[in-house]
Write a structure and sequence with these properties.
The protein has 201 residues and is mostly beta strands. It has helices at 18-34, 163-166, 189-197, and strands at residues 47-50, 53-59, 70-77, 85-88, 92-98, 100-106, 108-112, 116-120, 125-130, 134-137, 142-147, 154-161, 172-176. A 6-stranded antiparallel beta sheet has the order 1-2-3-12-5-10. The protein has a 3-stranded antiparallel beta sheet with strand order 9-6-11, with no helix packed on it. Strands 4-13 form a two-stranded antiparallel sheet. The longest helix is centred in the first third of the chain and has 17 residues, at 18-34. The N and C termini lie far apart (82 Å).
């Protein structure tokens, strides 16, 4: 039996060293990783005035750390304020370090075939939390964090897996900005302190 493939497989003049590159990377990576941080000091954790709110990045792929698959940041929500509202494909967990408040979650029905699309469910669910609790955000859920205390700040630690992005599913959509968001502000510790001292009116 004759196959058409037998007539074409020898075509092409491109030559690469892709497999050797994998071997070289496997050899070099331990040396490279030895230079990457296993301990990140607070002074090395970048601040960001983000559409999601006031953030201090603990681990991020753009930081020179050994962490390969997880991003983590601290979210600071001033008294009586709220985070931005967003949706992402990766699940997320947040540890409540300080304060009390609640989340609003709106689940989405998702279908991934040749195309990726989702449909909002009608119900919006409320989840109350306080310091010491862990908040779980399911994949693709629209969510927002609210500080229920008009006098004290909230601090949350967010951890999220970046593997989805490496798989071509970096599906992140910002639906509402945090009230504090100002693209002209370069956030630092002194500016964060001013936000923390604001009392909601």
């Amino acid at each position: 039996m004759s196959w058409d493939e037998s007539k074409v497989w020898q075509q092409g003049n491109i030559s690469e060293n892709f497999y050797q590159d994998l071997l070289d990377d496997a050899t070099a990576k331990p040396v490279q990783d030895a230079k990457r941080k296993k301990i990140v000091k607070p002074s090395e954790m970048p601040w960001e005035m983000a559409r999601q709110g006031l953030l201090k990045h603990l681990l991020n792929e753009q930081m020179n750390t050994r962490m390969e698959t997880v991003d983590a940041y601290m979210q600071i929500i001033p008294p009586g304020s709220r985070s931005g509202k967003h949706r992402h494909l990766a699940e997320e967990c947040l540890y409540v370090l300080e304060g009390k408040g609640y989340d609003l979650h709106q689940d989405c029905d998702v279908e991934i075939t040749d195309t990726y699309h989702w449909k909002l469910q009608v119900e919006v669910k409320r989840y109350d939390w306080q310091a010491g609790d862990v908040i779980y955000t399911p994949p693709n859920t629209i969510h927002q964090h609210f500080n229920a205390d008009p006098n004290k700040p909230v601090r949350l630690i967010s951890a999220i897996n970046r593997i989805y992005k490496y798989c071509g599913l970096n599906d992140l959509e910002q639906l509402e900005d945090a009230p504090e968001y100002d693209p002209n502000v370069v956030l630092d510790a002194s500016i964060v302190e001013k936000y923390l001292k604001k009392i909601s009116k």
